[in-house]
Design goal:
The chain has five helices and no strands. The chain is an all-alpha fold. The two termini are 21 Å apart. This is Helix-turn-helix domain-containing protein. Residues 17-71 form the HTH cro/C1-type domain. InterPro entries: Cro/C1-type_HTH (IPR001387), Lambda_DNA-bd_dom_sf (IPR010982), TransReg_Diox_bact_type (IPR050807).
Length: 75
């Protein structure tokens, strides 16, 4: 049976979000505002603590001006 929560994928995705945010000179507050989510959610995503929703993935992609495919690249 496959695990629903893959810790390695969550960790890699979190690092990807943090890298993209820092490359764009954004704070966690900036990204949270751009995505219309709480700052704690960004913190938890970057830390690989939560399995985020499709809606949040879409908002992150828009905030970074990327497609979903580009956002998930190398995750």
């Amino acid at each position: 049976m496959n695990k629903i929560r893959n810790e390695e994928v969550l960790r890699k995705f979190g690092l990807r979000i943090k890298q993209l945010r820092q490359e764009r000179g954004m704070s966690q507050d900036d990204l949270a505002i751009a995505c219309d989510v709480e700052k704690t959610q960004i913190y938890r995503i970057e830390g690989g603590k939560i399995n985020t929703t499709i809606s949040t993935l879409h908002a992150l992609a828009e905030a970074f001006e990327l497609s979903l495919e580009q956002l998930l690249h190398d995750v």
